[in-house]
Amino acid sequence: MSFSETEREVIFLKAVKELIDEMVNYEVFDLNGSDPESQIMFHSITHQRFFNIILVDFLSCSDKKVIGEQQSYLSAIRSICQSPSFNEGESINNLVLATDRFIDWLEQEVQVETWLPSIETNAVLSIKRIEFLKICGNISKHNFSRLSGAVNELIKIFKRNNVDIDLEKSLLVLNEFYERFHTDILNYHSSTIAEFLNNIRWGIYEYLQPEFCRSIVWESKNPPIYKYTYPLDIKNEFAKSCYWELMNEMRSVPYIRRFQVTKWLKLRY
Questions:
Q1: What is the DSSP string of 35-67?
Q2: 123-162: per-residue pLDDT in tens?
Q3: Which of 21, 90, 151, 242 fits 14 for a cystine, CB–CB 3.0-4.6 Å?
Q4: In the beta sheet, which residues pair with residue 114?
Q5: Residues 198 and 254 sit within 8 Å (Cβ to Cβ)
Q6: Are residues 208 and 80 in the same domain?
Q7: What is residue 58's three-state secondary structure?
Q8: Cα–Cα distance for residue pair 166/174, rounded to 1 Å
Q9: Comparing C-alpha atoms, which of 242, 214, 265 is closest to residue 40?
Q10: Per the confidence metrics, is the pTM higher than 0.90?
Q11: Does 126 lie in the same domain as 98?
Q12: Do residues 37 and 167 both lie within one domain?
């Protein structure tokens, strides 16, 4: 299917909002402390794993057969920020800031000391945060027998760090890499990632509030009966459905309040 720019924007906003809502909610973690010393605590190891699985989907690309193009969700949000369809009174500003900050953080290359006993190697790996988050997310999602993509990525990363490993050794270090970068480092970064995601979620809410107020038409207050006035260039029925659901979801604030994570969880890796 092909979509207009406004239809495309609505579809991606709905997709991003849904992905964030799956990760950032009280079923997955508790929010402890008070700002600026807040942090999250997953309810269990399984909830941390679920968080990483949805996160790797969020950091991946949309399906071209469904949305008409293959683009990462963060890239789509950045494109929306550059040319928004509903911006009024600079309502897009917080979404721009939140998106840029998260992308910059993800793309930063960090140095991580990594002990891999199965191949008797102790290496300081220079690796982008987005790289190890995606690899660990795929390991969380799939059995080792379906991880050829993750294995190939590991081979490239190790080669870039002057550590030569073949397919056999890459399979051997999968669990050790996961233990270091998921169990240890993702747990350390999880509060910061949740803060970034929550800020994007609030940014979407604030960006769309003027459009929600423009669009909603109350036919009755008691009982509440209302409809939405579609923008003129939203004609596709699927896009209309996404718009209706997105506007409905703008009736209430995001699940979790804005919060600031303690600086002690932002100093490493």
A1: TTSBEEEESSHHHHHHHHHHHHHHTSB--HHHH
A2: 999 999 999 999 999 999 999 889 999 999 999 999 999 9
A3: 242
A4: 123
A5: yes
A6: yes
A7: helix
A8: 12
A9: 265
A10: yes
A11: no
A12: no
